[in-house]
Sequence to fold (107 residues):
Amino acid sequence: SPEGFPRVDGETQRTRDESRRKILEDELSAEEKLLAEAKQNLKDGEANPEVFRQTIITGKTSNGSPITKTVTRRNVAKYDEKIRMLNEQVDLHQKNVEALKTELSKL
Fold:
């Protein structure tokens, strides 16, 4: 340390390090829970594709009334967007977990 630079005694530094470790461990625990939730949300999202129901006219009866049929179709664009956003959440929490583990390893 340069001359005149404030010095911290060992016990004070140890206390600061312990506090920092506790904060990082708490953050890591919370982030791991968020990661698990994000992974579950992704799994649920993949299992539930976006669908919509559509009524189409297939013809007319002899008296001119429409013959309709309801079909279920997938909304691929909406599903893809939902999965992309869920994957981003998983990636974000995974990076946060890795960063916290790196910080903890430096203590």
Remarks:
- Residues 10-47 form the longest helix (38 residues).
- The helical segments are 10-47, 76-105.
- DSSP finds two helices and two strands in the chain.
